[in-house]
Amino acid sequence: MPSRPKPRPAQQALISDPERRRRLGASFADDTSLEEARRYDAVRPRYPDEVVDQLLRVAGSCASVGPPVVADLGAGTGILARALLARGASVHAVEPSAAMTEVMCARSVEQNPEQSPGQTRPPHRLQVHRTTAEATGLEQASCDVVVAAQAWHWFDDALVQDEVRRILRPQGVLGVVANYLDTSVPWVHRLTRIMRAGDVYRPGWTPPVDPARFTAWDTTQTRWERKMTPEQIRELSTTLSSWLSAEEPARARRRANLDWYLDEHLELTPGEPVALPYLTVLHTSVSRVPGAPVS
After folding, report:
1. Contact between residue 179 and residue 47 where contact means Cβ atoms under 8 Å apart
2. Are 39 and 234 in contact (CB under 8 A)?
3. What's the CA gap between 277 and 268, in Å, rounded?
4. Are 103 and 80 in contact (CB under 8 A)?
5. pLDDT per residue as tens digits for the range 254-278
6. What pLDDT sits at residue 1?
7. Phi-psi region of 286 (alpha: psi -120 to 50; beta: other; left: phi over 0)
8. For residues 264 and 215, what is the distance between their CA atoms, to the nearest angstrom?
9. With 217 labelled, which of 9, 38, 64, 178 sits at a CA distance of 20 to 30 A?
10. Which pLDDT does position 23 carry in this prediction?
11. Between vectors from CA 168 to CA 164 and to CA 171, what angle results, nearest 5°?
12. CA–CA dist 129, 146 (Å, integer)
């Protein structure tokens, strides 16, 4: 039986090597093709309704008049952004990848109830910014909430905190949310090892932030299941940074191992969905007022 993911100390960067972070992050930001972005959007998990609702409840506690304004850092293809838009939020989607933002805009048009027949523009409450999380270009104190979904580990810790503080309104909320395959289930943990899924939940971990700038994290966990066929699980594995940055020999070995595990070891039936357990973790913190005491 493979060992469980080891606890990771709180406030420790998930990717401490800047060069490794740049190389893996580039597999999304620089190298993603339109086909890969579409596949990513099709097979990556959505966020449970209760998690999105909780994020917006927190947003509502500090929002100015009107819909809450949310900056979605590393927005990808807009999986979280679309859920926020559907609930009435205004969203600044910050994403450097051209392919990802193209899919984001197209899917936002498809899912937006405000659209008129034949209209091809994204909803007016969505603004897309082709740039990085560390330099959003957004106005100072313009956002009620800044959230990073499946993306915080790609950012430079010091620079992104500076930018988050700059664009948040006083006592605005920073949210960090991620979907993890639930490695408390033994067969899923072995699956993550074979897929080389680096984004597994580490008990005790919280995002590294300066306590002089942000309050202690409030963390909630939501367990849920997603029905996926063996073919979709294979597709999911090809959207991971470890796959996108790998050479073909490494991909071939991983593909063979995954085929053995799904087909022979687990004996999954082709085309038949299996319940894949997930864990969604939401961390929220409030931006401290400058000069306020740290408890």
Report:
1. yes
2. no
3. 16
4. no
5. 999 999 999 999 999 999 999 999 9
6. 45
7. beta
8. 49
9. 64
10. 47
11. 115
12. 14
The strand pair at 218-228 and 90-94 is best described as unpaired
What distance in Å separates the CA atoms of residue 62 and residue 64, rounded to the nearest whole number?
7
Do 126 and 81 contact (CB within 8 A), yes or no?
Answer: yes
Nearest to 163 by CA among 197, 139, 187: 139
3-state secondary structure the chain: CCCCCCCCCCCCCCCCCHHHHHHHHHHHHCCCCHHHHHHHHHHCCCCCHHHHHHHHHHHHHHCCCCCCEEEEECCCCCHHHHHHHHCCCEEEEECCCHHHHHHHHHHHHHHCCCCCCCCCCCCCCEEEECCCCCCCCCCCCCEEEEEEECCHHHCCHHHHHHHHHHHEEEEEEEEEEEEEECCCCHHHHHHHHHHCCCCCCCCCCCCCCCCCCECCCEEEEEEEEEEECHHHHHHHHCCCHHHHCCCHHHHHHHHHHHHHHHHHHCCCCCCCCEEEEEEEEEEEEEECCCCCCCC
Separation between Cα atoms, residue 240 and residue 237, nearest integer Å: 6
Beta bridge partners of 129: 94
Domains of the chain listed by start with CATH number: 18-180+201-223+280-286 (3.40.50.150)
| Phi, psi angle pair for 247, to nearest 5° | -80, 165
Instruction: Say if CB 154 and CB 100 are below 8 A apart.
Output: no
Closest alpha carbon to 281 in 226, 225, 213, 203: 203
Under a CB-based contact definition with an 8 Å cutoff, are residues 104 and 81 in contact? yes
Q: What is the pLDDT of residues 117-152, one digit of tens each?
A: 555 556 689 999 999 999 999 999 999 999 999 999
Closest-CA residue to 33 (of 197, 234, 244, 235): 244
pLDDT in tens, 27-68: 455 668 999 999 999 999 999 999 999 999 887 666 566 789
CB within 8 A of 35, min separation 6: which ones?
none
